[in-house]
Amino acid sequence: MKKSAWLPAVIAPVVVAGAIAAPTLASAANDPIAGTDPTAADVIASVAKSSDAQYSGKLSQTSDLGLPELPAGSGGSSLEGNASDALSLLTSSHTARVYVDGATKQRVQVTQQLAEQDLVRNGSDVWTWDSKAREATHVTLPDHVKESFRDGTMTPADLAKQAIAAIRPSTTVSKPTTTSVAGHDAWQLVLTPKSSDTLVGSVELAVDKQTGLPLRAAVQADGQSEPAVQVGFTSLDYGAPAARLFDFTPPSGAKVTTKDLSDAADHAGSHRGAHGAGDDAPTLTGSGWSTIAELPAGTADQGALGADAQGLLGQLTRAVDGGRAIQTSLVSVYLTDDGRVLAGAVPVSSLVAAAK
Q: Please, which residues have CB within 8 angstroms of residue 329's CB and are 6 or more apart in sequence?
């Protein structure tokens, strides 16, 4: 599956809460939600115990970031086509089938216009498949990897955990209320940023009362009545999916790329040991929901884009001091003239100020 897959669900949480606070789940209890009147802390703690859940279901994702809807694959070249595909994922709705058997077996299938993209993990083996391009990638995970490998795929659990990571001291959490998602009773929490310098109005989480599995997550932009990004189950059945769903063999004639992340992990570790952090690691400024991530010079080489891609970039961005920028209802991105990229759930003016 392409790294752009389910991009709307990825961008907001990553920018909003990806690395802005220490996760509170580390100290969460694994006991079921106590009683019929739990606290917000009880509900949040219950999410931790859902990592070994077994289930299959259908997810629906909707995005309303204020961008014009674009068709997938409208670019001329491969680069421009990928950019168009990514933008189409930011502007339209998508559905996916999800199969999960604990922390090390997952399958996600996204179907679009008679094409299918799959992400399949079975232990240390991860396959991605794009039926339109007839391309498969096989990744071998390092032994120490324990958590689910998603390659950009985002589920309600991902959104929930990243939002929870920003919970203190930057967020007000509501008292749990009762709701229902895909026929399952759930507790609903509303997380509201305390900062006034953020585009995020609130994050709404629905957590299964019995299992602790996040069933729906919605990120609402400040001043909007409808979610800017929402991912939720429309159907969900608990129980182990068929074992064959986690086996994958690329079709005959497919282009197959093989990657071994064990070597990459060793290289990254030695590189961090010598330099403290990777040269491409983003620099974070600000705190809480107002955090800004900056990638170094050379990250965005606008001169390397083809004519179609440059035209698309010109349509979607506007000229600002020192570069070009786009501000959606939920996130802003600033491309500086010297090739840096700054992003955050903040107004463009905050990014421009941070770049100076």
A: 64, 65, 66, 199, 221, 224, 228
